[in-house]
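stage 2 :: seqdesign
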């Protein structure tokens, strides 16, 4: 009986003990593990859960409160822990770089309770790269950004290192930005993953450049030291010229164009051009427009500025005697004198004028009687057979009206009178003013393949012509020839050097006033003779002097500088895009280790179907 009582008490104790270990209702759960990114020993974050369950299996029942189950990539373990609220701890760990979903079951005693645990393995987040549609753009232009990612990503963020750009959609994988100011900006794209162990952030960076839009900051007439800013007018007399330079900030791969209706433009070199005023008989206003076109990755932006060019009738000086008769020829003996005065046409009434009498030898002396009136006296050296030339320069300056504007644009504006020829008067000298007067020859200079050809006009009564040359602005004058020929071929020239030639007619008595011409030695500009369709492309034929070869340009506008081919003969095959093509060509030549280039030819338009 006592034995039965003891057995019953033990049973009650066991029941009481089992009652303390309650099988609480553990919900089915999903565990997400994220790789720690250590490629040499790839593991996933460990997660620990308390559980009442005492067994773990993947199939048949396995009982106990100390058990580990593993399939080679995932380890799940139930460990007895009397300090745990439920008496056991479930630990989950994975240790291979695989993406794998696995389902396990945990059981209570005698398989009466069963709960499912889904284990999801997520690869460590990765960033493969960052790309931008455009890394160089104009201010105000926008473009896209994109992150290439892999693995387990929970979010994105984008940052920049300055305010040159504005960022948009910074919480997404694909963002965008707009350029604000010129300059470089470093943009960082971040991929974020949140795990039980904290936050994992990976980033990629890229530098983008914002270019300023083209702006014309200044238009300067080179003859005015202070410059003509923006819309300030340029004043010119008829037939005079001014070299105008436009200064541009911003833009990219800029091209330049001057346009002017009624004015003559020449020597256009990028942002510089020479403006020549037409002949007018009254004050006339014209417009000169400068346009800059910027091209960046196919995006075109333009800016333009227009200034006024005001043309005035050109002042004229005439020499006359005191009785008002015009003078171009006068006969005098030695130790004689002649009073002369000036008559002025088209001079501003409020401008100050200073006169200067110039003679080409020491045979004439001048005495200033008043401003614009002089006494001319012959010296004792003025004997039979001698002749002397006299002319007057009038300088306009410091006027308060039109003259002041002209002098500002052209420095001290100088008008020169025609020559007054004075010859010795005697019984043994026959005079014919038309026969004794030497005009100034007109000089021309032209680049040829092997040098520079200088030519000049014939002068009546000249027995010969003296040709001089200097190199650059500060070179010395050297006599090239003295003969009765009307041209000279200068072979001793170098490319890119500037040469100035002056020519003067002479006879047995006098040497006339010279005229000058400056020219830069350069390659001759070729031209396109024809373009015909051929098998596989288009055949181009070029006319002009041949050097080392030719560069072919093709584009969608007449000023294109898009190089498509280089050929070393006057005929070659080129390939054109569909649509309208504007073709241009220039010559090049290798001189030593450097290359020099001609000006670009006029364009030829071709339509490709």
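stage 2 :: out
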């Amino acid at each position: 009986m006592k034995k039965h009582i003891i057995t019953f008490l033990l049973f009650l104790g066991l029941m009481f003990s089992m009652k303390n270990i309650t099988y609480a209702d553990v919900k089915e759960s999903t565990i997400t593990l994220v790789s720690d990114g250590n490629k040499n020993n790839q593991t996933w974050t460990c997660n620990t859960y308390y559980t009442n369950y005492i067994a773990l299996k993947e199939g048949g029942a396995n009982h106990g409160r100390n058990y580990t189950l593993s399939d080679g990539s995932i380890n799940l373990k139930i460990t007895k822990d009397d300090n745990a609220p439920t008496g056991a701890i479930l630990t989950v760990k994975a240790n291979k770089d695989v993406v794998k979903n696995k389902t396990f079951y945990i059981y209570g005693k005698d398989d009466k309770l069963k709960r499912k645990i889904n284990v999801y393995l997520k690869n460590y987040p990765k960033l493969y790269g960052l790309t931008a549609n455009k890394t160089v753009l104009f201010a105000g232009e926008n473009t896209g950004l994109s992150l290439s990612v892999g693995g387990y990503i929970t979010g994105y963020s984008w940052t920049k290192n300055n305010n040159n750009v504005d960022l948009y959609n910074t919480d997404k994988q694909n963002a965008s930005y707009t350029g604000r100011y010129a300059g470089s900006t470093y943009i960082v794209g971040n991929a974020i993953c949140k795990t039980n162990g904290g936050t994992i952030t990976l980033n990629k960076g890229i530098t983008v450049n914002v270019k300023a839009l083209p702006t014309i900051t200044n238009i300067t007439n080179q003859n005015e030291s202070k410059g003509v800013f923006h819309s300030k007018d340029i004043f010119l007399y008829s037939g005079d010229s001014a070299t105008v330079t436009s200064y541009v900030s911003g833009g990219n791969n800029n091209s330049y164009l001057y346009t002017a209706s009624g004015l003559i433009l020449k020597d256009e070199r990028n942002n510089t051009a020479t403006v020549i005023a037409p002949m007018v008989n009254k004050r006339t206003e014209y417009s000169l427009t400068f346009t800059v076109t910027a091209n960046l990755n196919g995006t075109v932006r333009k800016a333009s500025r227009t200034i006024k060019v005001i043309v005035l009738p050109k002042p004229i000086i005439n020499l006359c005697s005191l009785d008002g008769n015009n003078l171009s020829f006068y006969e005098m003996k030695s130790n004689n004198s002649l009073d002369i005065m000036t008559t002025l046409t088209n001079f501003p009434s409020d401008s100050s004028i200073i006169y200067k009498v110039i003679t080409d030898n020491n045979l004439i002396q001048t005495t200033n009687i008043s401003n614009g009136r002089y006494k001319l006296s012959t010296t004792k050296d003025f004997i039979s057979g001698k002749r002397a030339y006299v002319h007057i320069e009038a300088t306009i300056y410091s006027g308060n009206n039109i003259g002041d504007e002209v002098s500002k644009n052209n420095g001290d504006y100088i008008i020169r009178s025609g020559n007054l020829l004075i010859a010795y008067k005697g019984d043994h000298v026959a005079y014919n003013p038309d026969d004794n007067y030497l005009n100034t020859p007109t000089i021309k200079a032209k680049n040829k393949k092997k040098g520079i050809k200088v030519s000049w006009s014939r002068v009546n009564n000249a027995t010969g012509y003296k040709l001089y040359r200097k190199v650059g602005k500060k070179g010395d004058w050297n006599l090239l020839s003295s003969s009765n020929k009307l041209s000279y071929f200068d072979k001793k020239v170098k490319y890119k050097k500037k040469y100035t030639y002056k020519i003067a007619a002479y006879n047995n008595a006098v040497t006339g006033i010279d005229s000058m011409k400056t020219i830069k030695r350069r390659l001759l500009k070729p031209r396109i003779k024809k373009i015909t369709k051929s098998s596989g492309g288009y055949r181009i034929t070029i006319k002009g002097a041949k050097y080392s070869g030719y560069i072919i340009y093709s584009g969608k506008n007449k000023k294109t500088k898009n190089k498509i081919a280089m050929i070393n003969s006057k005929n070659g095959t080129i390939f054109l895009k569909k649509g309208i093509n504007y073709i241009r060509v220039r010559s090049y030549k290798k001189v030593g280790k450097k290359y020099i280039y001609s000006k670009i030819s006029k364009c030829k338009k071709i339509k490709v179907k």
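stage 3 :: structure notes
- The chain is about 5% helix and 55% strand.
- The longest strand covers residues 198-211.
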